[in-house]
Design brief:
The protein is mainly alpha-helical. It is built from 14 helices and 8 strands. The protein has 3 domains: 156 residues, Methane Monooxygenase Hydroxylase, Chain G, domain 1, CATH 1.20.58; 30 residues, no CATH class; 110 residues, Alpha-Beta Plaits (2-Layer Sandwich), CATH 3.30.70.
Amino acid sequence: QDNGFEQFIINYCNEKLQQIFILMTLKEEQEEYVREGIQWTPVEFFDNSIICNLIENSKCGILAMLDEECLRPGVVNEDTFLTKLNQLFATHKHYESKETQNARRIMDASLPSQCFRIHHYAGKVTYNVTGFIEKNNDLLFRDLSQAMWASRHTLLRSLFPEGDPQKVSLKLPPTAGFQFKASVATLMKNLYSKNPNYIRYRPRGEPRPQPWHQRDPPQPTAALPRCIKPNETKTAMLFTPELVLAQIRYLGLMENVRVRRAGYAFRQLYGPFLERYKMLSPRTWPRWTGGHREGAEVLLADLALPREELAFGHTKIFIRSPRTLFDLEKRRQERIGQLATLIQKTFRGWRCRTQYQLMRKSQIIISAWFRGHM
């Protein structure tokens, strides 16, 4: 109920994770359909970039204003910080305080005077500015860093590289908010370099996926967890529909489900797709001399898959249902077994034929020598 500086930066990180979830699962996927020329009706969703920008903008974001107050000479306190925020974000629709509410003639007794409120993606959160400046300042003085670096303990020395006299800087140490923002930026860069990874429930009766050692080398993935809390008391077998529904809405799962239902569960470039499944058609196996897209079209035509399950983009093939993909994998595994049997049969035939010819040749030589001897 009482949120301070720590909860503020934690929620900032949550907002950034929500942003990457939106970009990876909603925005980029719909843009890919348009880019590939797939017929698509856009699904509307809320982009929380405006909230992230409110917090992290390097010139006029909340963290930038907090750093400015921490580094400003003279008497500094939370009142001047809150006043500056009220002036900057007086008209911002995701920020409110007692002063902005009074300007809009809004009567709200739940918002104290020393607080501001942010309309996050997951709902409204009220923050008390008391202690913001003190907690944002890095109070580890330079001489303490130098003392730790001079230690003979290897681990302790490695934790304070800024204490090295050769690397000493006269600049003010970075604030806690600045360091956290840099850490979040590094995390986002790492996540953006991955592909989203979805964990799917397997209904009873559906074939199990391949063992890990039989699959193709996986692409780098980034699991975006979306956990639902069924009740507030952590009690087994208790399901609170209102709580679950609120979490589903706040996590953006409704929009994600709409995109997933209307969209395609699988997409792949024509080249790798044809290389993986070309064994399923006599017209594409053992080798196809035409273009990759034409080969994929011939292959899928021979497999007689439902037309509504497929969509042909400019560079990729799209498959709507996971069941269709599982059917392709099942046929491929069966065909691999047939090809393995064919290879074994051919090899055994060659080995037996070679052995027979050698025995026959030996028999003729022995017979010739025996007749000559007689």
